[in-house]
Amino acid sequence: MGRFVPLSIPNFEGNEETYVLDAVRQGWVSTGGAYITELEEKLVSFTGAPAVAACQSGTAALHLALLECNVQPEDMVIVPTLTFIAAVNPVRYQFADPVFMDCDDSLCMDPEKLARFCREECELRKGVRDKGDAGVPKEADDEEYLVYRRSGQRIRAVIVVHVFGNLADMEAVMDIAARYHLRVIEDATEALGSVFTSGRYAGRMAGTIGDFGAYSFNGNKIITTGGGGAVTAADPGELSHIRYISTQAKDDPLFYVHDEIGYNYRMTNLQAALGVAQMEELPEFIRRKTENYNAYKEQLSGYKKGFLLPFRKNTKPNYWFYSLVLNEDTRKNGVRSLVQRLQEQGVQTRPVWGLIHQQKPYGGCIAYRIEKAVFYSERIINLPSGTQLTEEDLAYVVEVLRGI
Ligand SMILES: Cc1ncc(COP(=O)(O)O)c(C=O)c1O
């Protein structure tokens, strides 16, 4: 059998087997156990987030953040269209409506369009009482909030995705959110470890800048717990409430008193055991991904069929996924057939996601001036980026790309 270079596969070179076996032998396999706390502590010390709650998935982390934002049926939440659909679905879990926003050249949300949408299509209102859970007024009468003018729907929050480990323009996003009273949820599911190196957020990591951050430890992410995730909150009170609703909202664990609707979203100790081992390796994984990105960049210089998408300046990304932007001729010849031909030669690649505003469940939602997302979604393929990628594998990928 010839060479096969996968897109990205989990890497268990460290203490994974030892810790998982330990959790099994201890009998702590469910939603209690020391590995869960240890993973949370490791995430806090690595990211600098004030507190972290481990949960079942990145999707659950995003849902918990939306619940904490008090997103109600018929509210609106601004989301990107160029993303994995899990960044958007939790908006619908709350029976709210997504508003789809375009990307900039980093593939993350375009803050200029976000600002323009808020300025031209929306208005700030105040004075109308907003009912919270169970009809209890939650917000003060004089609090300003943003409304989509055409429908009168309240816009609660914006979900910003740090696509492929590239950081969104958080300075601009945070300024817009402050101006229009929007809560900011960072979808950092792909960006654990990406950090700003200068500017207002120098030293701050993805997931620790907005009101909430979500991480994913799905099998294809930079670290994995099989399935799993974590949520951060700037306000420790909000994080402890998230923790409470993620564990069935138990007010009295002995007599089973519940004052709110809760969720079974807590991570298990088995998953966390894997996560603790993976956290030990995370700096090394980032180092390898950085090195491999730089090697691709060097070896693909002068490549005629496309170019390697750069990451944002003044950041140190985790280089989770590498994007090759195909030129017009190559695109016209068919991205699907290109991916197939690469696969036949043992190089696994993947086209970028289908845009979410074009997906069936989201037909009829507002999509605001989507242009760049269309351009990039038609042209990007992701190259093999696993942490086991060897120098020979990488040279082989480039050779196949050059020959095709
Ligand atoms: C951008 C984005 N958001 C959300 C998710 C959901 O994470 P999970 O698979 O852990 O639910 C993922 C990854 O799967 C993702 O890539």
Account of the 3D structure:
The chain has 404 residues and is an alpha/beta fold. The chain has 2 domains: 16-277, Aspartate Aminotransferase, domain 2; 281-403, Aspartate Aminotransferase, domain 1, CATH 3.90.1150. The chain is built from 12 helices and 16 strands. The protein has helices spanning 16-26, 34-47, 58-68, 89-93, 111-121, 170-180, 236-246, 269-299, 328-332, 335-344, 372-377, 391-403; strands at 52-55, 76-80, 97-101, 122-125, 145-148, 153-161, 183-187, 195-196, 212-216, 229-233, 306-308, 315-316, 322-326, 350-351, 366-367, 380-383. The strands form 3 sheets. Strands 1, 2, 3, 4, 5, 6, 7, 9, 10 and 15 form a 10-stranded mixed beta sheet that branches. Strands 11-13-16-14 form a 4-stranded antiparallel beta sheet. It has a two-stranded antiparallel sheet with strand order 8-12. Strand 5 (145-148) and strand 6 (153-161) form a beta hairpin. Helix 2 (34-47) runs parallel beside helix 8, helix 3 (58-68) crosses helix 7 (236-246) and helix 8 (269-299) packs across helix 12. It is globular, with a radius of gyration of 22 Å. It starts with 15 loop residues before the first helix and ends with a helix. Residues 133-137 have low confidence and may be disordered. It binds pyridoxal-5'-phosphate.
